[in-house]
Design brief:
This is Serine transporter. InterPro entries: Amino_acid_transport_2 (IPR018227). It is a multi-pass membrane protein. The protein has 9 helices and no strands. The chain has 192 residues and is mainly α.
């Protein structure tokens, strides 16, 4: 029983219109929806990271790459890491929200700095744990195969471990991450 895929142009238009519609409702509504999206995303990434621990190939840690391999990997990985951690578009809106809440520059600075440090630290820990867990559960050859097949790491892991749940989580993770990222970037662009 084959399912006809929807028209991509129409689907894109509906999805973008829906996301912008949420943004136009109110900042408070958008923040509640984002909060609703982020917690499942963090839980899924953490659960997948834990699930992969028994499948880690510890030999990967002991192998020392050549300088050329190291630079090549860094060149490919750096943009992904930068964009994974980039939440700068939302910082201006966050600061304004903190100013409205605390009404005093020193108190605002203290609370905003504390919250940003905590958020950045948690983001770093969760993303890096997920990345290391995925990388350590695959061999360099398998990573290269995933790249050549142009499929997500979750799709490759689902195929490797014959786990259909991982293949179902892949699109969900992408949806949650893209939606919350869209809201943050739209909020930042709206203020610019």
């Amino acid at each position: 029983m084959a399912v006809m895929p929807p028209n991509r142009a129409l689907l894109s238009l509906i999805l973008i219109a829906s996301l912008i519609g949420v943004m136009l409702l109110s900042e408070k509504t958008m923040l509640k929806i984002t909060e609703f999206l982020v917690y499942p995303l963090v839980f899924i990434l953490f659960a997948l990271s834990i699930y992969l621990i028994p499948k880690w190939n510890i030999a990967m840690i002991t192998e020392l790459p050549t300088l050329n391999q190291c630079l090549s990997t860094l060149w490919i990985t750096l943009p992904v890491l930068v964009f994974s951690f980039n939440h700068s578009p939302a910082i201006s809106s966050f600061t304004q929200s903190q100013q409205r809440q605390y009404n005093h520059p020193d108190t605002t600075e203290k609370h905003a700095s504390h919250t940003l440090k905590l958020a950045s630290t948690l983001l770093l820990i969760f993303v890096m744990f997920f990345v290391f867990s995925c990388v350590l559960s695959l061999t360099p050859t398998e990573l290269s195969q995933a790249k050549n097949q142009n499929i997500s790491i979750l799709s490759f892991l689902a195929n490797k471990f014959h786990n259909p749940y991982i293949s179902y989580l892949g699109p969900l993770v992408a949806f949650l991450a893209i939606t919350s990222s869209f809201f943050g970037h739209y909020l930042g662009a709206k203020e610019a």
